[in-house]
Amino acid sequence: MARRLLGADSATVFNIQEPEEETANQEYKVSSCEQRLISEIEYRLERSPVDESGDEVQYGDVPVENGMAPFFEMKLKHYKIFEGMPVTFTCRVAGNPKPKIYWFKDGKQISPKSDHYTIQRDLDGTCSLHTTASTLDDDGNYTIMAANPQGRISCTGRLMVQAVNQRGRSPRSPSGHPHVRRPRSRSRDSGDENEPIQERFFRPHFLQAPGDLTVQEGKLCRMDCKVSGLPTPDLSWQLDGKPVRPDSAHKMLVRENGVHSLIIEPVTSRDAGIYTCIATNRAGQNSFSLELVVAAKEAHKPPVFIEKLQNTGVADGYPVRLECRVLGVPPPQIFWKKENESLTHSTDRVSMHQDNHGYICLLIQGATKEDAGWYTVSAKNEAGIVSCTARLDVYTQWHQQSQSTKPKKVRPSASRYAALSDQGLDIKAAFQPEANPSHLTLNTALVESEDL
């Protein structure tokens, strides 16, 4: 067949079908961005519950000292293929006891009973995932996770499915027609301008996508994503299925590093809902969705004193409390001052206290003359500031003289100050309600004390 189609001199380019298929399943190296995405997928899967309904492996009784966590003797590789071609991911895993195996695509577990994928496991620990005809939807990251009581481990292989260019040569011929390819030397050197050139298309793939967001009303919201694909995909945004149009509050930007951003400022209650980002190019499309929750804007209220500071007096050496109550939204910050000096921190003797109900207290243990003066408390929040001032007086404690002191005799008098003695004025005696107290009536004879 080859000789008839190409001639005897060109038939040497055909061997058997297997080398052709090996060449098509081309291995490639993933980019650093894709590697970070793969690492994040593996990290989450190793810490997430899995569906064990299809498990056929049962752990045996293995002594703890003989147990061994799973490890890969051969890891998955990355492949780049054309649409419609078969592909097989293969690795080899070991561990004691024998690990259970789970397969995932883009973080979602693949059922062992899947009709599209064939999952196999050999006695030597070789595990494989095979599909006979790849579609554009098969493009993605395939992860295998091995688990036993000693631990979990995973590795990922990237599959890039390229769309077939109908105008050029297809890498796989339609069924029933042989695949014909020109000699490699002739295609490079002949310079045939009429020969169609194979264009390579890559379906969009999101390397970075945000999760659900909660933003306070009036604030800024930013949604960042990064997408790969060939040709460069076009991005569009939808809110609850309706297109998001750029305006003064909604901006769509693309940075030099390829990160696309949807920026909303200020956020309103109308911006809440399900956002979908759709990336489209000639090879297909891809999308992701997230929910934006808009929290109600907190009403700001300036601070208000419910109870103000009161002027206070205290005896020297006694404790004293300067108290008040202030409310505001959000809860205000409290500042204390004595005269023009700020009280920034508490000490063992002077401490500042505040609770969740707005009660504020300045506590002084063992007041002294130096503590006397004007005290100011200020409350401040985003809506305003308010202050209150009160005076603290500290007086010397009065000590009565010993009762053994000899009482002094005084000259009686009709005056209210007749009770004045060397110890001072006896106020109670001086202001008796009786009009003519009997003990203050005049005697005809004056009596003088020995000291007068």
Describe the fold and architecture:
It is found in: Cell junction, Focal adhesion; Cell projection, Axon; Cell projection, Growth cone; Cell projection, Lamellipodium. Residues 70-154, 204-295, 302-393 form the Ig-like domain. Residues 165-194 are annotated as: Disordered. Belongs to the myotilin/palladin family. Interacts with EPS8. Interacts with LASP1. Interacts with VASP. Interacts with ACTN. Interacts with SORBS2. Interacts with PFN1. Interacts with LPP. Interacts with SPIN90. Interacts with SRC. Interacts with EZR. Interacts with RAI14. The protein is mainly beta and 452 residues long. Among the domains are: 32-47 and 67-162, Immunoglobulins (Immunoglobulin-like); 202-295, Immunoglobulin-like, CATH 2.60.40; 301-395, Sandwich (Immunoglobulin-like). The chain is 8% helix and 42% strand. The chain is built from five helices and 30 strands. The chain has helices at residues 2-6, 17-24, 32-45, 184-189, 427-430, and strands at residues 26-27, 68-74, 79-82, 87-96, 100-105, 108-109, 118-121, 126-131, 140-148, 151-163, 201-208, 213-216, 221-230, 234-239, 242-243, 250-254, 259-264, 273-281, 284-295, 301-307, 312-315, 320-329, 333-338, 341-343, 350-354, 359-364, 373-381, 384-395, 420-421, 424-425. Strands 1, 3, 5, 6, 9, 10, 11, 13, 16 and 17 form a ten-stranded mixed β-sheet that branches. The chain starts with a helix and ends in a 22-residue tail after the last helix. Residues 8-23, 166-193, 400-407, 409-423 and 434-452 have low confidence and may be disordered.
